[in-house]
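In response to reviewer comment 3 from the previous cycle, which asked for concrete evidence that the modeling workflow produces usable outputs, we include below a single protein chain processed end to end. The sequence was submitted unchanged, and the resulting structure tokens are shown without manual editing.
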Amino acid sequence: MAQDATLHVKLDRQTDAQLKQLAQTRGTSKGQLVRDAIATCYQVAMDDLPVEQSHAIAAYQGGFISLSRLAKAMGMHALELRPWLAERGLEQRSVYGADDVDCA
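The workflow returned the following structure tokens.
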């Protein structure tokens, strides 16, 4: 895994010992355990979404429903949904094309 940034975290001795033991048990590094924990905590995998929400995302990506309809299906406001989509690398469709900017 390519690492683009470094994060330094101070741990108490007990937590460090527990993390070290877990890393040894799993055959990985403490850093990898921390990276996995962060990914698990802060990014909802698309596979973990309820079926209705997964279908709504697929419909949005296919151009069958609007952003506001997707927001309703996700239980969010459209303004909350935009950064949520961006965090997950999902393209946000716009009704305007690149050529429309010249006409504005």
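The chain has a mean pLDDT of 83. We consider this sufficient to address the reviewer's concern, and the full set will be provided in the supplementary archive.
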